[in-house]
Amino acid sequence: MRIGTPAVTTQGMTEPEMAQIAALIARALRGRADDAAIAAVRADVAALCANFTPYS
Questions:
Q1: 1-56, pLDDT tens digit by residue?
Q2: Which residue, of 4, 12, 14, 31, has the fewest CB within 10 Å?
Q3: Residue 6 lies in a domain
Q4: Coil, strand or helix: which one is 15?
Q5: 29 inside domain
Q6: Does residue 11 contact residue 53 with C-beta atoms inside 8 Å?
Q7: Per the domain annotation, does 1 fall within a domain?
Q8: Residue 18 placed within a domain
Q9: How far apart are CA 31 and CA 26, in angstroms?
Q10: What count of other Cβ atoms lies within 10 Å of the Cβ of residue 50?
Q11: What is the count of structural domains for the chain?
Q12: Sign of CA pseudo-dihedral 41, 44, 48, 54
């Protein structure tokens, strides 16, 4: 899997957020069969994204 950084760096995310994103991806992959785990990851993604302005 190749994941590029331009979309998140454009929003102002840096290394700490990249580490969070990697952890979120790992949690999603590990919990892919668990609806509650995926819902928790989704909520954490929303919380992370709420701290940054989307680009337009």
A1: 788 889 899 999 999 999 999 999 999 999 999 999 999 999 999 999 999 988 76
A2: 4
A3: no
A4: helix
A5: yes
A6: yes
A7: no
A8: yes
A9: 8
A10: 8
A11: 1
A12: positive
Which residue range is the domain that position 26 belongs to? 14-49
- Amino acid of residue 23: A
Q: What integer pLDDT is reported at residue 31 of this predicted model?
A: 97
CA distance linking residue 13 with residue 15, whole number of Å? 7
* pLDDT reported for residue 56: 64
Burial (CB < 10 A; 0-12, 13-18, 19+), residue 41, is buried
pTM of the model: 0.87
pLDDT at 51: 94
4: its two tokens:
């590029």
DSSP summary character for residue 33: T
Side chain identity, residue 32: R
- The encoded tokens of residue 1 equal 């899997």
The 3-state DSSP class for residue 34 equals: coil
**Residue showing tokens 């290394």:** 15
